[in-house]
Amino acid sequence: VELEIERYQPELPILVDGEPKLPEVDPTKRRRQTVELPAGGAATVATFDGQEHIGELAAITADKVTIVSSGKAIALPLAEVRTITQTGSAADVMTTPGMHVVIGDDGSRLGVRGLQLAEGQLVATTAIAGRWSSPVDGVARLLRPRTHETPTELDRLRERLNVKRGAEDTLIVGSGAAQAVTMNAVLLAIDEQSVKVNYEGTDTALPAGDVPVIEMARLSDTPPPSPIGHVSFADGSRIAFTGLQVSDGHASITSSALGLLRVPVGQVASITLRSDRVAWLSDLPWREVKQTPYFDHAFGPGKDRSAAGRALRLAGRRFDKGIGLHARCEVTFDLDGRYQWLSALAGIDEAVERGGALLTILLDGRALVDKQPLDRAKPPVPVRVDVTGGKTLTVLVDFAPGTLGAGAMVNLGDAMLIR
Q1: Could you give the CA distance from residue 216 to residue 19 in angstroms, rounded to a whole number?
Q2: What confidence category does residue 360 fall into, taking pLDDT thresholds of 50, 70 and 90?
Q3: Rounded distance, CA 91 to CA 103, Å?
Q4: Contact at 8 Å (CB) between 301 and 318?
Q5: If you average pLDDT over each of 52-66, 208-222, 254-268, 324-338, which comes out highest?
Q6: For residues 419 and 410, what is the distance between their CA atoms, to the nearest angstrom?
Q7: For the residues 353-377, what does the mean pLDDT come to?
């Protein structure tokens, strides 16, 4: 189990054993839920002040997390807990060969089998909840890898072909990545044998195995409702939720994109709630950007994207939030003394085959991380530095000695500021 408690959202409809737990609170204050979980294996509870406590997870209540270590119960204030990580955490559904994935317009990722579409309704079988059905309206794309492919490989193919959501459905068609082409058409239906579309006014059936990616048309310019949090599951699926109910051993998750899922609590690997104590670095405006061109080509910094404009990836993991920089680049943010910690995972972008860079992080001109080597051949480096009272934060990526500038594309995944 991995649990990250982040934000308040007083309207969150939570039921525990059928009883509502919605105390009257000021909407600006943090609210807590009570969810009893069965004891598991060794768990690491990390708090906002950087401490870690290891023991057997016993319970999570409205105001505390209890673990048992060496026969002694340890109660930690829930408001101070950042993450709870239990051994045997779930894999990412995006790395499972042959797994079809439905991606919602809120970023949800649901692993499915036997996906079908008829009359605007998607139907499939899931490992976490059995049969699942939902209108197609909130779906952003369908990834349908062959048995030897992963959804991540198809996501990269989509990026390489520059497929983006528009007014029409876009299909990637081809029996392999080398032969893949894009096709704008109206998606009509999906079954085991074919994908049916209307192409230039004519209904056409394409072999199901020749359509690995379907990018759904954007039906509205209105963004989806902001999720209250995310739930991750044992199969690696990850659902953004706007409502969560726990009763009778089941969790009922309401997603603005994928509808309602009723899932045994045992399938829940993690629950993440948004927090007013956390600010994503990429959500802050640049105060200043200094970019030195690399052989006359400037790679501008990216927010929630790499410096090359692609998804942030490190060591097989994709990050929805973070920043990407290519040497030599220096970016500065205003902190105004509002934060205590900076946390991130720093490394060379997965798209780079070899090379490295140097990472420096400065607070008001004082180095907190000084020329930290990053190498594509080595694991990413966790970063956690004290920024208490700091006015400005500067992140500098420079060329590493002996690399001739190769591979100096750095990602800071999950870069967050903690109050």
Answers
A1: 39
A2: very high
A3: 17
A4: no
A5: 324-338
A6: 25
A7: 94
